[in-house]
């Protein structure tokens, strides 16, 4: 599950790399004057669809519902804490254009390495589409440790003492389902 979510979030890094290096996926002769705009539209559409599908995927396939409630000592949004890591990986993607890659295998190896860094950094939940879809990424601290909760922005979490109805994504990341 974490791998699929990482792929959906990493699609934005690939999008930025393709745009930065002016790599066109589609070449349509009668749209040659607008090919850059058409490709940007296609890339953004792919990123949005993969982000939305990843939310559906989490809701349907999260490992299991937790039996315990997640007690809250402290709760706050994580965007300011983890976004620099996400942006650093995007900067790495921008810098890849300085590497002379003459064949597809070299590009694939370099991209795989950057993806591994992305996956290991555990920032797969920083998908911009989720933010637009009304999800917020929250860091919950309690006596047992620190956890990440993907939750709806409509709930008032600062007033809560515990969070119920969680689905486990991995050891420290949970998805809050509707009550």
Automatic annotation (TrEMBL):
The keyword Membrane applies. It comes from the Bacteria. Keywords: Membrane, Transmembrane, Transmembrane helix. The chain crosses the membrane at residues 37-58, 79-97, 103-126. This is Uncharacterized protein. It comes from Bathymodiolus thermophilus thioautotrophic gill symbiont.
């Amino acid at each position: 599950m974490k791998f699929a979510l990482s792929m959906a979030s990493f699609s934005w890094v690939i999008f930025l790399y393709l745009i930065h290096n002016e790599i066109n996926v589609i070449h349509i002769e009668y749209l040659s004057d607008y090919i850059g705009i058409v490709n940007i539209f296609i890339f953004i559409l792919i990123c949005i669809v993969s982000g939305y599908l990843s939310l559906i995927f989490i809701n349907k396939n999260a490992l299991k519902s937790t039996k315990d409630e997640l007690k809250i000592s402290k709760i706050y949004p994580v965007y300011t804490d983890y976004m620099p890591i996400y942006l650093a990986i995007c900067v790495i993607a921008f810098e890849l254009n300085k590497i002379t890659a003459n064949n597809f295998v070299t590009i694939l190896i370099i991209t795989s390495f950057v993806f591994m860094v992305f996956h290991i950094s555990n920032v797969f939940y920083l998908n911009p589409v989720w933010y637009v879809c009304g999800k917020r990424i929250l860091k919950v601290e309690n006596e047992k440790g620190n956890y990440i909760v993907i939750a709806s922005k409509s709930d008032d979490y600062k007033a809560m003492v515990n969070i119920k109805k969680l689905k486990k994504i991995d050891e420290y990341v949970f998805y809050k389902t509707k009550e």
